[in-house]
Specification:
Blueprint: H1 4-23, H2 38-61, H3 70-88, H4 94-107, H5 120-129, H6 133-137
Helix pairs in contact: 1-2, 1-3, 3-4, 4-5
């Protein structure tokens, strides 16, 4: 989506679903109905890993992406948060994040990189060593 405001809203939407369906523990809150059926969450996470993440990576690596712009910076922050939630997901597992993001997109370079900061190995190590969503932005 070329509109930064819509990118921010989409990133927030996906972050919340990733949090609810991949990170929250069912039954923790009596008001929370818990996650949907496994087939729905599997399809959602397949979509996130195969469509949403590659699209956001292309967007933030695009030459028109200006990290100094407040809205673009917010998109980057939400995307970093989404990556962090995927990495930390107790339901999905760190190994899924590693194989579907780090190995496929960073080390495999399946996204047009534009002017990438650092080598793929440095970026992969950054993802692996990240201790919060803010670290994913760097």
């Amino acid at each position: 989506v070329p509109d930064p405001l819509m990118n921010k809203v989409c990133a927030q939407f996906f972050c919340e679903l990733i949090k609810r369906w991949g990170c929250d523990v069912a039954g923790r809150d009596q008001q929370s109905p818990g996650p949907p059926p496994t087939t729905v969450t599997d399809a959602f996470f397949d979509f996130v890993y195969s469509v949403s993440i590659p699209g956001m990576m292309r967007h933030i690596l695009d030459v028109n992406f200006n990290v100094k712009d407040a809205l673009h910076c917010r998109v980057l922050a939400e995307f970093g948060r989404a990556l962090w939630l995927l990495k930390q997901s107790p339901r999905r597992g760190h190994s899924e994040f590693h194989s579907r993001v780090v190995e496929l997109f960073v080390l495999g370079q399946n996204v047009s990189s534009g002017n990438r900061k650092g080598s793929p190995d440095v970026i992969a190590n950054g993802f692996q060593n990240a201790s919060c969503g803010k670290d994913m932005e760097a």
